Amino acid sequence: MKILNSTIVLLLLFGACSPQKNNEEQSESTTSQTSWKRTSIAEIEEGIKAYIDRETSANGGYFLVNDEKRQLRLKLVRVHTEYLSNLGPDRHFACVDLADEEGDVYDVDFFLEGKPGEMLVTETSLHKLNGKPFYTWKQVVDKTWRRVPVEEATTELLGVIEGDDKFEFRYEAIVPDIKEQAKVWIPLAKTDNFQTVSIVSMDYPGVHKILKEKEFGNDILYLELDAEHSGEKIEVIYEVSRKEKSPYDSELEIDPRYLQPNLLMPIGGRFSEIAAEAIKGKEKEGKLMQARALYDYIIDNMRYMKFGEYGTGNSVLACDSKTGNCTEFHSLFISLARSIEIPARFSIGASIPSDRNEGGIDGYHCWAEFYADGKWWPVDISEGNKYTALATYYFGRHPANRIELSQGRDLVVEPSPSGGPINFLAYPIMETEEGEVYPKTSFSFVRKN
């Protein structure tokens, strides 16, 4: 196994770990390879897992990777199934998350060769540490892909499309095994001042209705399912036109709820103390400068890590661990902001890759807005944390390449889940008589040029 040199040009790379060619480019590159049989995604996943398991067993329970300074002792966290890909006859690409003994998470790119059951890793490359990339990918004139240091990358290579974007967005979930009955709640994207959304098709089993969540105006697809629906697909396909969001005037009076606590986003107490310390010296300045101080505090003090307990948007856990994904970053910001009388609110959806024109999407993404100087200001603190060069951009901007699925926290609908208000809604919430279950959910897109 060898670590890739940063100047190597690699062919046909894929995904957020590495970019995917569009259909036209793929056909140009593979016209002489039409006879080879593509390995399935499941087989590639099995191949990379088997390799990591073998290496882990042979090295005292750890997968070993050498970086420039030391040998890393890692354990598998997850395989990015949305980025597994065939690169040619018996050549494959995989991207995985591995965590070290201190809890840092490394995103590692692997290149494999061989047939199913016989795959060997030929090249390994450390791509990201705690969500922050060491490099990105750029397609060159001969339609191969070259690694580019982040400090030399354009904003488009770092996830930002300015101006406008247009794409098809596919939301898909597979119903798990059901013994008797189940209930499902799924967000439905809506048109607003920044995105125009039309539903191309909806495919779902069972009995359905569209619920209207009144406080934030969300639409929710509600399904009632039986055992016979096990394994069936739920799919919603959208056509989306979206424009970049910058600070904008409020059309309504600021609702008091944007200064009040939520179940997992408390205010006051320790949050007031942290916020007061963060804005020290700016107490007499406006709310805009104070919000920027909170934004900088979170960027400086939190690490983006999908490891351990994360993804619930619990401000207390975020405050204690100083780690998490986008939900922890923005929940902590909202708790701090509201604690010093800055209205703030939460939204969730998906970020559409900017460096390729189709393919899988690495799950949901969330963001926040705060109110100051007569405007709502968009912020994306977890992205600002990943890309230092874009920290200023993400204070006051959301790029065009995203879709919003729902707004708000503690959503109340009727019928409602047995657990009470919905914390936030991106992936399906599914309840059976035995409790909550989790449908396998995936997002994908095709950009409309």
TrEMBL record:
It comes from the Bacteria. Residues 318-383 form the Transglutaminase-like domain. Pfam families: Transglut_core (PF01841). GO terms for molecular function: peptidase activity. PROSITE patterns: PROKAR_LIPOPROTEIN. SUPFAM superfamilies: Cysteine proteinases. InterPro entries: Papain-like_cys_pep_sf, Transglutaminase-like. GO terms for biological process: proteolysis. This is Transglutaminase-like enzyme, putative cysteine protease. It comes from Indibacter alkaliphilus (strain CCUG 57479 / KCTC 22604 / LW1).
